[in-house]
Design brief:
Blueprint: H1 20-33, H2 37-45, H3 47-50, E1 59-65, E2 72-80, H4 92-115, E3 121-126, H5 139-144, E4 165-166, E5 179-181, E6 184-186, E7 189-193, E8 201-205, E9 234-237, E10 271-272, H6 305-312, H7 316-321, E11 323-324, H8 325-335
Parallel strand pairs: 2-3
Antiparallel strand pairs: 1-2, 3-7, 4-7, 5-6, 8-9, 10-11
Helix pairs in contact: 2-4
């Protein structure tokens, strides 16, 4: 049967409350009519009150990490969506509710990143969904923006741009799970990285203390194992304001730009500069076997060639053709004695 929304008002009820489909259609219409991103974001936030499909409403943490010097802002949107129970036994309410929760969340995510395009954020929690469509609803595809509507019975719409990245895909296939149900390892708990935080993400893992532990340990107070039936996801994020791959706390050069503006003419033989985005200094090797060495942004402790030129007061030859091998070695020996 279709889900219902209870609307409270003074006086007597004159007619049955509208269906969830009708209320949701009205809210979607209001979204399409508004052209003000801030207004749309506020409308998305009000969904929880006006359209109570979330028994466990999303929680938003708006914070700054200040332990590495310069403040690093981060927003975390935590969720617990409806379970898969009943979706494959004809429970239309369960399917519809999962569809509407995913759609609401995708609208909230999109309006948040429209208003705050440079704010690093992560969407996380127990989504009770596979990382692929269950053929009824593509919960994760809807939330991340990576959706093929025709692949699901309830066809969603692509609301999120730029897409979120499900960091579970950075793990080997055998590690892509957080829950074991009837012997089947499944991924239900995810970290979804926004485009603004992606350059600072260095890894993800699931501490294996719950899903792999025997369920009999759940009532055993003598061990921390099986404290839950899910493994929590841990996302590793560098506080790296200039996104050069070197944390703020050890980065000697703020506001590093990669690729950099050096060389201004051409990259000379055995000269070094960050000409692409991989954090490895590029060079033009000589004829023969090449330079026989390499340098990274970690070796220079977060400094590009142009920043080394400024710090060491090097001449225009370095600006035109890149930093010499000698200049690179002198800098590294100075900052890493």
């Amino acid at each position: 049967m279709p889900s219902q929304v209870l609307l409270l008002a003074a006086g007597c009820a004159q007619e049955p409350p509208p269906s969830a489909d009708d209320v949701f259609a009205e809210l979607r219409a209001e979204f399409s009519e508004s052209e003000d991103p801030a207004e749309k974001l506020e409308m998305a936030r009000s969904f929880i009150v006006r359209f109570p499909e979330h028994e466990q409403a999303p929680l938003v943490l708006d914070a700054e990490y200040i332990g590495a010097g310069e403040p690093f802002p981060i927003v975390v949107i935590n969720n617990h969506l409806r379970s898969l129970s009943g979706v494959d036994t004809g429970n239309e309410f369960a399917r519809q509710k999962r569809f509407e929760q995913a759609t609401q969340l995708s609208l909230f995510v999109q309006d948040f990143q429209t208003v705050n395009p440079d704010t690093p954020f992560v969407v996380t929690g127990d989504f009770n969904a596979f990382q692929f469509t269950d053929s009824y609803v593509d919960v994760m595809g809807q939330i991340t923006g990576d959706i093929v509507p025709a692949d699901s019975l309830l066809q969603g719409t692509d609301e999120v741009d730029p897409n979120l990245f499900n960091d579970i895909f950075a793990l080997p296939q055998e590690e892509r799970y957080s829950f074991v149900f009837n012997g089947n390892a499944q991924g239900f708990d995810y970290m979804l990285s926004s485009a603004a935080i992606a350059p600072a993400v260095t890894g993800i893992e699931y501490p294996r203390g719950n899903a792999d532990a025997p369920s009999a340990l759940f009532l055993d107070n003598g061990t921390p194992l099986r404290a839950s039936d899910h493994d929590a996801a841990v996302l590793y994020v560098l506080a790296d304001s200039d996104c050069d791959g070197v944390p703020n706390g050890v980065d000697l050069c703020a506001d590093t730009v990669i690729p950099e503006s050096v060389p201004t003419e051409r990259l000379g033989t055995n000269r070094w500069a960050l000409t692409d985005g991989d954090g490895i200094f590029d060079t033009s090797p000589p004829n023969g076997q090449g330079p026989g060495q390499s340098f990274t942004i970690q070796d220079t402790v977060g400094c590009s060639c142009e920043q080394i030129i400024d710090e060491l007061a090097l001449g225009q030859g370095h600006v035109k053709f890149g930093c010499s091998t000698g200049a690179m070695e002198d800098w590294i020996s100075m900052v890493q004695p």
